[in-house]
Amino acid sequence: MFNYGRLFTVFLLFSLTIESNARIHKIPELDNSFKVFGSASEQSLNPDGFDIIVWNIYKARKKNFIKDFKSFGKVDIFMLQEVSLVDDFFSSYKAYSDHEVHFGTSFLEKKFRSSIESGTAISSSVRPVDSGMIRSSQLEPLVKTPKVVTWMKLSFEGREEKLLLVNIHGLNMVKNRDFRAQMKECEKLIISHRGPLIFAGDFNTSDREKYNDMISVIQRAKLVPVAFLNDERKRSTFSGLVIDHTFIRGLNVLQGNVFHKIQSSDHKAMGLKLAIK
Questions:
Q1: 117 Cβ partners below 8 Å, 6+ apart?
Q2: Residues in the chain with pLDDT < 50?
Q3: CA distance 70 to 91
Q4: 3-state DSSP call for residue 24?
Q5: How far is CA 215 from CA 32, 46, 187, 245, 249, in A?
Q6: Sheet of 130-135, strands arranged across
Q7: Distance between CA atoms of 266 and 11, rounded to whole angstroms?
């Protein structure tokens, strides 16, 4: 006999979960969502070689995060996803005091009497000529939060071209049409830029349709994927597809490596050394 009481209990718990998640997450106004920390030490990148780390840092919550973050050594650019503005995040930047951090807020997470900002960030030892963010109008189910793309433009020493960095945290548990809409917003930014470009981050390409939507944008924008040594990038539990990617245009790859020994996030950091063509 069908147990309607159990069904009602499940429905009630599901409804309470949705309501609870809506209460603990707040989406701030766009005018208050983009922040800059620190001060860059340089005015331009070396066109013959610069170093980048692309990494979903899992909100800097895991053990040894500060140690792992400081272990990269000299880095010109960080492109980070799942950034929470917590003490460990700021402490990790003591090793990169010459960096300027540009942070886009996705949502505020209430913790006791305070609220923690969460989003994506790009930091660089070079002062950007421009920067900004794109927040998705689509929301993740249950938690009702958007995802944020941060972007930045940097100058090269002795060159007229500007480097565009597009740092994405892709929508995850949404319908594919919502993921496609986020990708199209990124595409508008990418095709408006004529110079060298890096489009990277946690794309959350967890199924074949999302992966194909991403590739369609990449092909139209004439970007190429970066291949990595020790390629242990995170894969979807459900499909086995890689979800962290780096795509480039107008650049040469001098080295690409995945830091597979890192344990302070559920994602492995992608390291690149690039030069302008």
A1: 28, 35, 84, 85, 103, 105, 107, 108, 109
A2: 1-2, 4-5, 7-22
A3: 10
A4: helix
A5: 33, 30, 11, 11, 14
A6: 130-135, 148-155, 162-169, 197-202, 244-249, 224-225
A7: 31
Displacement of CA 133 from its chain's centroid (Å): 11
Per-residue pLDDT, 213: 96
pTM comes to 0.91
Residue type, 42: E
What's residue 6's pLDDT?
54
Helix (H, G, I), strand (E, B) or coil at 215: helix
At a CB cut-off of 8 Å and minimum separation 6, what does 140 contact? 146, 147, 171, 172, 173, 174
Which tens digit of pLDDT belongs to each residue from 40-67? 999 999 999 999 999 999 999 999 999 9
Strand residue runs (E) in 170-277: 197-202, 224-225, 244-249, 251-259, 269-276
Helix, strand, or coil here: 179?
helix
Q: What is the pLDDT of residues 125-151, one digit of tens each?
A: 999 999 999 999 999 998 999 999 999
Distance CA 79, CA 151 (A): 9
Q: Going from the N-terminus, what domains does the chain have, and what CATH number goes with each?
A: 26-276 (3.60.10.10)
Residues 221/191, Cβ–Cβ less than 8 Å: yes
- Enumerate residues 6+ apart whose C-beta is below 8 A from 58: 65, 82, 264, 265, 266, 267
